[in-house]
Amino acid sequence: MPTAHTGWRSAAIDKGSGFPAAYPALLGLEILLVEDEALVAAMLEDMLADFGCILAGTAATLSEALATLESATEIDAAILDVNLGGEKVFPVADILVSRGVPIVFSTAYGTADLPERYPRARILQKPYRPEALAALLIDIAHGPPD
To answer: By C-alpha distance, which of 64, 59, 32, 36 is closest to 48?
Structure first.
């Protein structure tokens, strides 16, 4: 039973049809989005809204992301662009890992040492389809495998 999400169910209704979003497992999932490309960020915000997710916060730079982490109390998962204008997002990822927040890394570059450094993180190679992101978030929403 959600306690901190007042009105979250109404935010997860498709405004055009009045029906729940296509991914009911994602309704109310609070996502931190860190992406430096404005167009990509806007598309991701739209995708997440379509999924029924709630934005826990957004940031385009490393400093904005760190500041957002200071004020964000409810984060169920994070989507992190690896390269933020030449700076790596790793300090943000480290804080999220210490809080037990699942991470999806979004990158147009190779994965390099991401699997070794963050073994529980998921990785999406840009560009990716909305369905691929939804599948990863559904996996996160259902918890880690035993």
So the answer is: 32
pTM: 0.84
In sequence order, which residues have a C-beta less than 8 Å from that of residue 24 and are 6 or more positions away? 52
* Cβ neighbours, 10 Å, residue 115: 12
Q: Please give the C-alpha separations between residue 73 and each of 20, 30, 68, 105, 133, in angstroms, as whole numbers.
A: 26, 10, 10, 21, 23
Q: For tokens 């147009």, name the residue.
A: 108
Residue keyed to tokens 């957004």: 58
The answer for 81, left when phi > 0, alpha when psi is -120 to 50, beta otherwise, is beta
Q: DSSP label at 13?
A: B
The angle that helices 38-51 and 130-141 make with each other, rounded to 10 degrees, is 60
DSSP 98: H
Gap between the Cα atoms of 144 and 100, Å rounded: 11
Other Cβ atoms less than 10 A from the Cβ of 29: the count is: 22
| Average pLDDT over every residue of 38-55 | 95
Predicted confidence (pLDDT) per residue in 61-98, tens digit: 999 999 999 998 899 999 999 999 999 999 999 999 99
The residue that leads in pLDDT, 60 or 5, is: 60
